[in-house]
Design goal:
Helices cover 25% and strands 26% of the residues. By secondary structure, the protein is α+β, with helices and mostly antiparallel strands. The chain has 2 domains: 21-83; 99-289, Glucose Permease (Domain IIA) (Distorted Sandwich), CATH 2.70.70.10. The radius of gyration is 42 Å and the shape is rod-shaped.
């Protein structure tokens, strides 16, 4: 116990020491008083809760925004990887096994390749043997533009968005367009692959393809039944020995064998090689106006 009385503490300028509680009730009362002294005021408690709630909400918004950004980025990247086939991009597709290691290919099932007016062209090679189908320009020729059937693999952004919105689908094979032209079409396949008539008609010409003084294949001309004013020309093939001028050919029922794909990659630059994993050999198809006979 202090030796100074209350007046002595006051004269010294210090507070008198607090008397020690003597009973249990006094000790409980002192503890309650200390808790009340230490507790923040009601307004301070409300402000503290508001601050904590605001911080939690900001963290939640940041997490939600980050999640949205990640989802959009993933969808955009996946869409770009799946669908981005700009015209300038050259796409390589796996090539089939060499024809020399395969059994003869069966006639293709009827599948429309392209058309021009009443003339319908059909895929001339079994689909399992096709490496790629590419439409392109033919310099110095009088070829007629074709209307492709199927799905364009390197369509532009606007066309791709329109197809996705409208849900436009087309029956036919997948194909590419090079140089923005559909004047001719190459149907890729390994050398030795069987090529069948792409149109119903009559053979009107079989012309050897002479390159560097050697015969590297044949060019077969067919007058289509649907339009005698045009001729369908199939080249880069080795004509079947049984094929003769004047022989009728069919494409939709019991297709007629025209010959096999020639290997011209050693003497010609194959445009199709930009789209395949092999040398780019193919059967070349085009539509030309029928030459007018000379008037005597």
């Amino acid at each position: 116990m202090s030796e100074h009385g209350p007046d002595e503490h006051a004269s010294l300028g210090v507070a008198a020491p607090e008397r020690e509680p003597r009973t249990l009730r006094e000790r409980d009362a002192r503890r309650r008083a200390r808790r009340l002294d230490d507790a923040p005021a009601p307004r301070e408690r409300r402000r503290s809760r508001a601050v904590r709630a605001g911080a939690s909400w900001r963290r939640t918004r940041r997490l939600v925004a980050l999640g949205i950004v990640l989802v959009v980025s993933a969808v955009t990247l996946g869409s770009a990887l799946r669908e981005d086939n700009a015209p300038a991009v050259e796409v390589a597709t796996p090539g089939p096994e060499p024809a020399s290691q395969l059994v003869p290919s069966p006639p293709p099932r009827p599948l429309k390749l392209a058309s021009r007016g009443p003339v319908n062209l059909y895929v001339p090679i079994d689909r399992s043997r096709i490496t790629a189908i590419v439409y392109h320009r033919m310099d110095g020729g009088d070829t007629l533009d074709l209307a492709p059937s199927g799905n364009l693999l390197n369509e532009g952004l606007v066309d791709r968005i329109e197809r996705q919105i409208i849900g436009r689908t087309a029956s036919g094979p997948d194909y590419f367009i090079a140089d923005g032209s559909t004047a001719t079409v190459d149907v890729g396949a390994a050398p030795g692959t069987q090529v069948y008539a792409p149109v119903n008609g009559t053979v009107v010409g079989i012309t050897p393809m002479i390159l560097n003084g050697a015969r590297w294949g044949d060019q077969v001309s067919i007058a289509p039944q649907a339009d005698p004013s045009v001729v369908v020309v199939v080249s880069n093939i080795a004509a079947d020995p049984a094929l003769r001028i004047g022989v009728p050919v069919t494409t939709t029922q019991d297709p007629t064998l025209l010959g096999t794909v020639s290997d011209l990659s050693k003497v010609l630059k194959m445009e199709l090689a930009h789209y395949t994993a092999d040398a780019g050999n193919h059967a070349h198809i085009e539509l030309r106006p029928t030459p007018n006979p000379a008037i005597p």
